[in-house]
Design goal:
- There is one protein chain.
- This protein has about 110 residues and is an alpha/beta fold.
- It folds into 2 domains: about 1-35, no CATH class; about 35-110, no CATH class.
- It has 2 helices and 6 strands; from the N terminus they run αββαββββ.
- It has a 3-stranded parallel β-sheet, with helices on one face.
- The relative contact order is 0.17.
Amino acid sequence: MPPFLLSLLLLFTISVPFSSCIAAGEVITCSGIVPMKYRNDKISIADFGGVGDGKTLNTKAFREAIYRIQHLRRRGGSLLYIPPGVYLTESFNLTSHMTLYLARGAVIKATQ
């Protein structure tokens, strides 16, 4: 197959799955699911010292926020909001009745 056609095929193969992630003026995620807007309890990772500078290790902030959500046991669940930024963290466990919501531009990066 000529290199041009191979490149075109590759570009098409990669771009089609991501075309569903784009919506002009709509709040939408790549999966097409918008999180519940009316959770009884909303918690920001910033309230627990989370810093999205791409340098600070945020494991303690994630663990403390999730621990609080787990022990509050609010009716209707809780939403953990991650503001825009790059959050470095080691592993942490999620809990039931929780929505992990990443704002546009928020990235959670794992460290070793």
